[in-house]
Design goal:
Elements lengths: L4 H18 L7 E13 L13 E15 L4 H11 L10 H10 L15 E2 L3 E5 L1 E2 L2 E3 L15 E8 L5 H8 L2 E6 L6 E4 L3
Antiparallel strand pairs: 1-2, 1-7, 2-8, 2-9, 3-4, 4-8, 5-6
Helix pairs in contact: 2-3
Length: 195
């Protein structure tokens, strides 16, 4: 069922959508390390008292994550390019990228010298995070998801390698790592149970 023509077509469309959201991050100052696309289809969830019987015989989901090295740790330059290119859908005034840039201008502290929260970008479709090292309050973690996914009816994973094979290797080489996650939120293919 997961390799039926309808599922294959829906899978290709979701992959194209993820690739389209990741493509704009090819900006000056970022070196592509690797991209992981994880695809899984699972059977019906067990019957529960609250939800009853799952109406779907098969549900397929896909996620995409790209990891980059930030050349020379110049994250402010990268953030300015993201803001200029309007890669993250945002409000025109007080954009998330400008707030993140301001974090670095203020050296991560408020006027009262308390730590500001770690900056990040999130428009509901794309989530961007990076190593915040001065002061160290967050780091991009190694991808922990099993690839390909385990415990599902159908699972596959593709890794597009660039300049690095791991988060640690990119951090050693560039000093800073940036991660872009595409949040799809919905299944790309569902097959209903026969009634």
């Amino acid at each position: 069922m997961a390799v039926a023509p309808e599922a294959v077509k829906a899978r290709a469309e979701r992959r194209a959508s993820i690739d389209e959201r990741l493509a704009p991050f090819n900006v000056r100052g970022l070196t592509h390390g690797f991209t992981v696309i994880s695809d899984s289809c699972s059977g019906p969830r067990p019957y529960t008292f609250e939800d009853g019987r799952d109406p779907w015989l098969l549900t397929c989901q896909m996620s995409g994550t790209s990891v980059y090295g930030v050349k020379g740790g110049r994250i402010v330059d990268v953030l300015r390019q993201i803001e200029t290119a309007k890669i993250i859908d945002d409000k025109p005034a007080g954009s998330q990228a400008n707030v993140a840039i301001d974090y670095y201008v203020k050296r991560g502290r408020t006027d009262e010298s308390t730590l500001l929260p770690a900056p990040g970008l999130d428009d509901g479709r794309v989530v961007v995070g990076w190593d915040v090292t001065r002061p160290l309050i967050s780091q991009v973690e190694a991808l922990s998801a099993t690839c390909p996914p385990s415990g599902v009816a159908f699972g596959q994973c593709s890794v597009d390698a660039g300049a690095g094979a791991s988060v640690a290797e990119l951090r050693r080489r560039f000093g800073m790592v940036l991660r872009v996650r595409v949040v799809t939120g919905t299944s790309y293919y569902r097959l209903p149970r026969h009634r």
